[in-house]
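Notes from the 1:1 (GR / supervisor)

We went over the backlog. Supervisor wanted to see one worked example end to end before approving the batch request, so GR pasted a single chain during the call. The sequence is below; no edits were made to it. Supervisor asked that the structure be written out right there so they could see what the output format looks like.
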Amino acid sequence: MARVGTFTVRLARCRPGCFLLIKYSVLAGALLAALVGAARAQTSLNTVQPWGSWVVATAQLPGSKEHPWGGYAEIQGRSNTLARQFFYYELKAGVSYDIDPNFTVLVGGGRYSTSDYRDLPAGPLNVEKRLWEQLVLTQYSHRLKIEHRYRYEQRWFRFRDDSSSFRQRIRYRPNGFFSLNKKVFTTGSLFLSAYDELFINPRGPVFERNRLYGGIIYQINNQLIV
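Structure output shown during the call:
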């Protein structure tokens, strides 16, 4: 049964190769950070209204030791204001495989549509079809959980004027979870979550964007968090 809006924590002893993966994940993250250290901060494309809202619904079927295959699906909408002026949506899904309790690979794909909210009947400004390959390495230390997510994307664009383009992108996201009231993440857990994701263009310019997130989360049960 799909688990909606949750993540699954599996506490397990690292296998012999896991510590090498942890070492290389930290090194890779440091290298990516160094690449963008001197980059300029981004400015909003919409200077009149720089704020907006995202609405996201996710269904996840995590793998396990007995059944390493898993998957997920997601639908997302974005607007320039709170639940109004929608201009963007995406539909995506993927299939995952747990190589190790702390090491998961995933292949996913999706469709992404961007429109002008002032003229929605004219159709999307561009439609993107995307394929990506992903590695996730998970570390645990007392009440802290850290996920290192590496993603390599292939992106096909079709624009309103019937032109097209192809792009690639590399993404790295360290995501931390810290439990405030329990030693493990379980029903009734209150915890902090934060990540910083770097978007790298291999053909240049190297720095494409940086996405910073922070939140306070409460786990109602094994299927639902807020």
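Supervisor's comment: The helical segments are 18-35.
Batch request approved.
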